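Example protein
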Amino acid sequence: MKRMWTLIKKVWKFILLFLLILLTFSYAMFQGGFVSWFLFYSFLPFAIYCVALSFYPLGELEITRILPKKDYDAGEPLTVTVNIKRSKAFPLFYLLMEEQLDGALGLAQQQKSAKALLFPGFKKELSYEYMIQELPRGEHFFHSFTVRIGDPLGLFEKEKRIPLEGKIMVYPAYTELLYRPFENQYDQGLTASRERVQRDTSMAVGVREYRPGDRFSWVNWKATAKRNELMTKEFEQRQSHDVFVVMDCIPDQHFEAIVSFTASLLRALLKRGAQTGLLTHSKERASFPIRGGQQHLQKLFYHLAKIEAKSTASLDKVMEADGVLVQQTVSFMLVTAQLTKPLIEKVSFLGHKKGRMTLFLIKGQKELPTDEERSLMAMANARGTRVLMVHEGDFAAAFSEVTGW
C-alpha cells in the first residue's frame, strides 16, 4: 500500500511538472513579448533539473557511521560522525540526512541534532556530526538513515531509507564505594560479623605442631624429621565473606537509582575480594551464582545495563517464591525503593535463619522518609533487620554507619 501511494505521488508530480511546462509555454505563445518568453526559458532549467533529479539513484550514497567506542557508562556524551560518499558528481541542491534513533536513545537530549541539512553541490564527499548529551542506560541499536533530496522550487522531492546497523552498550553509572562489612545487629545488640576464615595455602608463614583436622598435605617433613614429631605448615589466614544481592525490579521512579546503586555495590564488593551473586526478577527471573573476579563483574554489569522495571511481583513475593534464598547460607543485601510491612516480615523471617540481612532503601536527593517508612524502619530494627536509607547522589554514605539510620 505504501509503495503504491509513493508511486501515485511520483506520477502526480510528473503530471504537475508537465502541466506547468505546458502552461508557461502556452502563456509565451499566446502572450508573446520578452517577459512571457523569459518566464518560460527561466522555468525550463528547473523543469529539466526536476526530471534529471527523479532519475538520480539515492542508493549510490555510501554512508558510514563512526562511533568513538562501543561501551559507555550512563550519563556519558556520545558524538557520532557520519560520512557520505557518492560516485557521481550530479549537482544536488540539498541533502537532508536523519539518523533514525529508536527507544530511549531517540528521547535523549541532543546537543547537536541527528538531523542535518547539507548543501553538496558537486561534492562527492560530505560529513557531519551529531551529539547526544547524556546516554541513557541500556543496549541501543542504530538501524538506518533517512535521506531526502529535492529541487530549489520544492516541486520535486525524493526520499529513501538506507539501512545501516550499529550497536552500543551503555552500562549503569556507578559510584566508588568503600565497602566495609557490617556487624550483625540482633535484639541483644551488635555482634561481630561472622566472616568465613580461609587459609591461603599458597603462602606458608611458619610451622607448628600437628592438630587433629590438619590435612596430610600440610605436613612439613623436614621439620618433622628435625624435631622427631609431626609438624605442619602454618598458613596465612584471611577473612572473606559471600554476599548475595537481591534487586527490586518493580516499576518505580527511583529505578535508575536502584540500578546505579546495585552496580556500585557489586563493584565495591568484588573489588574488596568478596564473592558476590545477584538475583533480579523483571520480565523473567535472572540469578547469578556467587563468584568473584573481573569477568563475573562484567557479566553482572551487562545484565544491569539491559534490566528494565517490568516486574509484576513485589520484592517480598519474589523472595517468598525463590528457593535460592533459602538454600544460600551467606549475607543478603536487598536494594529497593519501596518499604512495606510484608517485606520487613519476610526479611526478618529469613534473617533469623540466615543471620545477616541488610536492606538498602533508595530515596531521591534530600528526600525524607515518610512516617510510615519511619515506623517500618523501627519495626525492622526491633526484629534485628538492618535498614539503611541511601540518597541518590550520596551512595558513598551507605557504609558510613554501622547501625543504619
Remarks:
- The radius of gyration is 34 Å.
- The chain has ten helices and 19 strands.
- The domain at 58-171 is CATH 2.60.40.10 (Immunoglobulin-like).
- Residues 184-202, 236-240 have pLDDT under 50 and may be disordered.
